[in-house]
Amino acid sequence: DAGITQSPRYKITETGRQVTLMCHQTWSHSYMFWYRQDLGHGLRLIYYSAAADITDKGEVPDGYVVSRSKTENFPLTLESATRSQTSVYFCATTNDRVQPQHFGDGTRLSIL
Amino acid sequence: AQSVTQPDIHITVSEGASLELRCNYSYGATPYLFWYVQSPGQGLQLLLKYFSGDTLVQGIKGFEAEFKRSQSSFNLRKPSVHWSDAAEYFCAVGGGSSASKIIFGSGTRLSIRP
Considering Cα of B107, then B97, then B48, then B54, what sign does the dihedral take? Predict the structure, then answer.
């Protein structure tokens, strides 16, 4: 039972490049979320999705794009990476908006 | 505005000692409250949650938390810590009609002294 799989686990790229972080879940949960974790900030919500083809902005959406054509996948794209987007990115899911979220193991992204 | 404050950035306790991690929240209605734990290189794992009812909530790994509405607090406690409890702990608050309304605190890093 894989649950949530994030890939890649580690990524190094250069400023200006496009990079896509993948999130795949096996539970068919309705809700999926992308967070970034930075020292001193805890987790900040980037985007979330309530169902396939339904997405909405979170607290820090600028510079990011998401899509959700299938329930199980929720990719996050940095269209033109900047150094300020160096962070650890977490995907999370839940089947009910008031229930706790389940987290993936994260993607550590470094932008040089 | 909705917010969560974890006033302690880093706490060190001796193995076998008791633990209390503080969490204060600001929320306009009855909140949903969560404590998560994060081990190095891992995602967050739910320790416990409070939605309603009994204000003392039991969680996994021997943790408990008490909801105090008058103090807007949801402190996490453990009577006797183990070396394996060393990790980062996050308090979170949510509620209302939007799934995006879950706010995480900045975390408290717990170190265990042998």
Answer: positive
Please indicate if any CB of chain B lies within 8 Å of the CB of A42.
Answer: yes
In single-letter form, the type of residue at position B49 comes to K
Chain B, 39 to 78: residues with Cβ < 8 Å from chain A are 41-46, 49, 51
Among the listed residues B56, B57, B43, the one whose alpha carbon sits nearest the alpha carbon of residue B87: B43
pLDDT surpasses 60 at A10: yes
User: What is the rounded distance in angstroms from the CA atom of residue B25 to the CA atom of residue A25?
Assistant: 31
Beta strands A42-51 and A31-38 are antiparallel
Calpha distance B65→A8 (Å, rounded): 35
C-alpha span between A16 and B72 (Å, rounded): 44
pLDDT at B46 over 70: yes
Residue B109's pLDDT band (boundaries 50, 70, 90)? very high
In this prediction, residue B99 has a pLDDT band, given cuts at 50, 70 and 90, of low
Cβ-contact B16, B113 below 8 angstroms: no
Q: Apex CA A55: angle with CA A54 and CA A59, to 5°? A: 155
Are A48 and B43 a contacting pair at CB < 8 A?
no
The chain-wide mean pLDDT, for chain B, equals: 91
Predicted confidence at residue B100, as pLDDT, reads 59
Nearest to B104 among A43, A100, A105 (CB): A43
